[in-house]
Amino acid sequence: MACRATLAPLCTCVNYRICSAMVLFRAEIMKSYSQFCPLAQATQLLCERWTLLVIRELIAGSTRFGELQRGVPQMSPTLLSSRLKHLVSAGVISKSPDHEYTLTESGRSLIPIVQLMGAWGHRWAPSRLEPEDLDAGLLMWDMRRTVDATTFPQGIVVQFTYADAPEGMRNWWLISKKAGVELCLQDPGHDVDIVVSCSLSVMTSIWICQRTLEDAVQHGDIKILGDPGLKRRLQQWLGASGLAALGKRGDTSTLLKEGIVS
Length: 262
Description:
Elements: H1 4-30, H2 38-46, H3 51-59, H4 65-71, H5 77-89, E1 93-95, E2 101-103, H6 105-108, H7 111-124, H8 136-144, E3 157-162, E4 171-177, E5 180-184, E6 194-198, H9 200-207, H10 213-218, E7 222-226, H11 228-232, H12 234-238, H13 242-248, H14 252-257
Parallel strand pairs: 3-6
Antiparallel strand pairs: 1-2, 3-4, 4-5, 6-7
């Protein structure tokens, strides 16, 4: 057993590190530009790490803490809770008694701003799809809420297989239902109508409009097995990332000029 004299320096060191981390964290969240400029005020509120991504998730329809977590899987629950409290206090979002988060009028006015930033990012700062940018869970969660369930009959099951994804994240199922699309990580036990097999980077590139499904099939980068009629409608059913699709339609000035974003 370690003696008290041996433990004391260790405890002092650990406490010092914890206190130092807390001081740095408080300094970070309290940092100010010390400017009256409206842009400075806006960026102080919105441009801390993760904040705009949380707002993106709210715009996409997530209202529960767990749903928001799935959209920002690398964000710690503690930090997400802190950001939500900050946005509530700033009047950007509201929290109901049953713990649902929704955008206020102030928050809804950010929608065209987020759309334009996403479109700008697609055009001028495209992802290189480095390994650290790939996340099967985030990809499938994003796909689930954009899939056009009306394209396929109710009950159609599409399985996605990513051989290069981490173990336990390689097989996913999307099931068309009357109320929308259900996402499963465990085999739902239904007959599968279409099987889509490719690398995680290939499906991500298709999803963010860097290439088309047809191009990936022609180059042998993706394999699709199943009913020929359903396969022909797969791209229509799948859709694409909303922000990436918006960026593909033109640059920000074009989007504003044509009234696509206002």
